[in-house]
Automatic annotation (TrEMBL), chain A:
<protein>
    <submittedName>
        <fullName>ABC transporter ATP-binding protein</fullName>
    </submittedName>
</protein>
<dbReference type="InterPro" id="IPR017871">
    <property type="entry name" value="ABC_transporter-like_CS"/>
</dbReference>
<dbReference type="GO" id="GO:0005524">
    <property type="term" value="F:ATP binding"/>
</dbReference>
<dbReference type="InterPro" id="IPR051782">
    <property type="entry name" value="ABC_Transporter_VariousFunc"/>
</dbReference>
<dbReference type="InterPro" id="IPR027417">
    <property type="entry name" value="P-loop_NTPase"/>
</dbReference>
<dbReference type="Pfam" id="PF00005">
    <property type="entry name" value="ABC_tran"/>
</dbReference>
<keyword id="KW-0547">Nucleotide-binding</keyword>
<dbReference type="InterPro" id="IPR003593">
    <property type="entry name" value="AAA+_ATPase"/>
</dbReference>
<feature type="domain" description="ABC transporter">
    <location>
        <begin position="3"/>
        <end position="233"/>
    </location>
</feature>
From TrEMBL, chain B:
<feature type="transmembrane region" description="Helical">
    <location>
        <begin position="172"/>
        <end position="198"/>
    </location>
</feature>
<feature type="transmembrane region" description="Helical">
    <location>
        <begin position="282"/>
        <end position="299"/>
    </location>
</feature>
<dbReference type="Pfam" id="PF05975">
    <property type="entry name" value="EcsB"/>
</dbReference>
<keyword id="KW-0472">Membrane</keyword>
<dbReference type="InterPro" id="IPR010288">
    <property type="entry name" value="EcsB_ABC"/>
</dbReference>
<feature type="transmembrane region" description="Helical">
    <location>
        <begin position="351"/>
        <end position="370"/>
    </location>
</feature>
<feature type="transmembrane region" description="Helical">
    <location>
        <begin position="20"/>
        <end position="43"/>
    </location>
</feature>
<feature type="transmembrane region" description="Helical">
    <location>
        <begin position="105"/>
        <end position="126"/>
    </location>
</feature>
<keyword id="KW-0812">Transmembrane</keyword>
């Protein structure tokens, strides 16, 4: 397996937000991390990308943990944050170069890939601009380009669909399926359940810091036959939120 | 609306007072008194050399008064959030702007009085102007400023661009003409015309404001700009949190970047050098301190004083650059790059060495220009090398490592 989170207890302060979480993401698989605001999605992600240290439990990425070999662990990981984060002083071109340098990518092949990605997201004529002044959607596209520039084995994508135009959403889903087919694992957190239902291979449903259920859509549906037909319905009934009908 | 402006004005004045206290500390006041006294003395000495033949001075005075009209703007104290929260009460905003107008008027008055006061002795010498005529000149200047401010209030509303441009230029040109008439023909004529102009501007404003809408975006931008100017001034003397260094592309400096190594070992260096060159905060600090240091060094001879200055300034620059190390800590990617932990510090030390060495070399040149002997220059060189080594290799590591 690519990513294995096992018995993770963690959070920002002494009081754990996450209570004993275990799940895996296999190579070539897109796993949706679903949960309400405050359910613990971002905390989980922050643990996986190494910003937070687990209080208990382990996070392994192809057999490596941060504690055993931080560099090797981070080399395998690419992250797209929910809110785009950019260097104010770097141009778009330099953002890409910075990523290439930081991940030690070969410049020629990386630039070939970069140009393809820039073309897809219609950024190829903005190489000398400061992305810090872009609109939210365009900033997000820069984040996507930087992440997919790497040869990561695990992509962590935090709520990618808000702010992107429909064309870009389509292109992002295509990119995800491309990296999946070369064997990369993708963990994506989102609130857009319709899209998630269609594209994710498996789901991890978080609620109040615990895993409520996990599995493929059909498995989950079989588990809760009365909850409804769509991921949306199932999720709402699981979290105990009453629906107005 | 009246209360809103009152509240904001109080908060604004409190803030200004807070910063003014910091700026005008005891040392600065004493220095300022000497400075103003020196200027006054120079001015009065210069006055003695002037005779009635120097008529060109009248032209300069006229331009001076004309340009002086542009000093001080309308303090609207409008905030970005107002575009949302005050939008429903847009019509009432005129009251608010009127209050702003009053405040700005009283703020502008002393400036204009001082301007007229400054040129009064010149005019009395060259034009042999009487005291009463000076009063007329003062009335003219205040009336012109009044019309300028009224126009600025009108500009807070959405007037078409061509209309705005036209009226602005007209106001500027008419002001200049009135000043010229007052100085060349009769001050009372100028005062009368200026009052007519001011009344005209007020009439136009009354005609137009209720028929149009507030130019929110432009107003917010110009107020932000005005405040930034004030904060920048304070920032010369003390730390103002509102002044966040802006970023400039500075393409002409790109050649410096060509020399920097580009590989995984220097990824942070790639970031640091660009941030340093394009951010205004730290680069401005280095440039200012280097220039001031070099000038002081040049004027302080080649004794112990200059060596002390050299050591202090290099230390000051190095010391104040240390926070730059943490500049990108809030960017999550710097934590998740697969880079060995010590690289960041190493890259930073490298940049620090380059900057401090450049400063050191400039200081050496300034010192050498004072006709210091080669031995003394060599001594300073050794001192610089030792100091930079200690700062970078030992002190920076201690503080940041």
């Amino acid at each position: 397996m690519a990513l294995a989170v096992s018995h993770l207890v963690g959070g920002y302060s002494q009081i754990p937000v996450l209570k004993d979480i275990s799940f895996q993401v296999e190579p070539g698989e897109l796993v949706g991390l679903i949960g309400l605001n405050g359910a613990g999605k971002s905390t989980t992600i922050n643990h996986i990308i190494g910003l937070l240290t687990p209080m208990k439990g382990t996070i392994t990425l192809n057999g490596v943990t941060i504690a055993s070999d931080a560099q090797q662990y981070k080399q395998q990981l690419a992250y797209i944050p929910e809110t785009p984060i950019l260097y104010e002083e770097l141009t778009l071109k330099e953002h890409l170069e910075m990523t290439m340098l930081a991940y030690g990518l070969d410049q020629t092949t990386a630039w070939e890939r970069a140009h393809d990605l820039l073309k897809i997201f219609r950024l190829d004529n903005k190489l000398d601009w400061f992305p810090a002044n872009f609109s939210k959607g365009m900033k997000q596209k820069v984040m996507i380009v930087c992440a997919f520039l790497t040869d990561a084995k695990l992509f962590i994508i935090d709520e990618p669909f808000l702010g992107l135009d429909p064309l870009a959403v389509h292109d992002l889903l295509q990119l995800i399926s491309d990296v999946k087919s070369r064997g990369a694992a993708v963990l994506m957190s989102t609130h857009v359940l319709d899209t998630a239902e269609k594209f994710c291979d498996r789901f991890v449903l978080l609620h109040a810091g615990e895993i409520q259920t996990q599995g493929t859509f059909n498995e989950i549906k079989a588990q809760y036959p009365d909850a409804g037909d769509s991921l949306n319905d199932i999720y709402l009934s699981l979290t105990g939120v009453t629906r107005d009908e | 609306m009246n209360e809103l402006y009152q509240q904001r004005l109080q908060r604004h004045l409190r803030q200004m007072l807070h910063y003014l206290r910091l700026v005008f500390n005891d040392h600065f006041v004493i220095a300022l008194m000497f400075f103003v006294g020196g200027l006054g003395l120079a001015y009065s000495n210069w006055l003695k050399t002037i005779s009635t033949k120097d008529t060109w001075i009248v032209v300069v005075v006229g331009l001076f008064l004309w340009l002086g009209l542009r000093v001080s703007r309308i303090a609207t104290l409008i905030e970005p959030a107002d575009t949302v929260f005050l939008l429903p009460r847009e019509h009432d905003l005129h009251q608010y702007f009127t209050r702003a107008w009053h405040y700005s008027w009283w703020l502008a008055l002393p400036v204009q009085v001082i301007l007229v006061g400054l040129v009064a002795p010149l005019l009395m010498l060259v034009d042999s102007l009487s005291g009463v005529s000076l009063l007329a000149l003062l009335i003219m200047q205040v009336a012109l400023k009044d019309s300028d401010l009224t126009l600025r209030v009108t500009d807070l509303y959405q007037v078409t661009r061509s209309q705005r441009r036209g009226v602005q230029w007209l106001n500027l040109l008419v002001s200049l003409a009135i000043i010229a008439l007052a100085l060349a023909v009769n001050p009372w004529l100028g005062a009368g015309l200026a009052l007519v102009l001011a009344a005209g501007q007020r009439w136009w404003h009354a005609q137009i404001w209720s028929k149009t809408v507030v130019a929110w975006k432009a107003d917010v931008a110009s107020e932000a700009n005005r405040m930034l100017g004030i904060y920048r001034f304070f920032n010369l003397f003390t730390d103002v949190p509102m002044v966040q260094g802006s970023v400039k592309r500075r393409k002409y400096l790109d050649w410096l970047l060509k020399w920097a190594p580009r590989d995984q070992q220097h990824a942070f260096g790639y970031l640091f050098t660009r941030g340093m060159l394009r951010g205004t905060e730290f680069s401005g600090l280095v440039t200012r301190l280097t220039i001031i240091g070099a000038i002081l060094l040049y004027f302080s001879g080649h004794g112990w004083l200059s060596i002390a200055l050299d050591v202090i300034f290099i230390y000051l620059i190095g010391f104040q650059l240390l926070p730059f190390y943490k500049r990108y800590d809030n960017i999550v990617f710097t934590h998740i790059y697969p880079l060995a932990a010590p690289l960041k510090l190493k890259n930073f030390q490298r940049l620090l060495t380059i900057i401090l060495s450049t400063t050191g070399i400039i200081f050496l040149i300034a010192f050498w220009l004072t006709n210091a002997s080669l031995g003394q220059v060599g001594l300073l060189l050794v001192i610089n090398v030792v100091e930079i080594y200690l700062l970078v290799a030992w002190y920076a590591k201690l503080r940041l490592g």
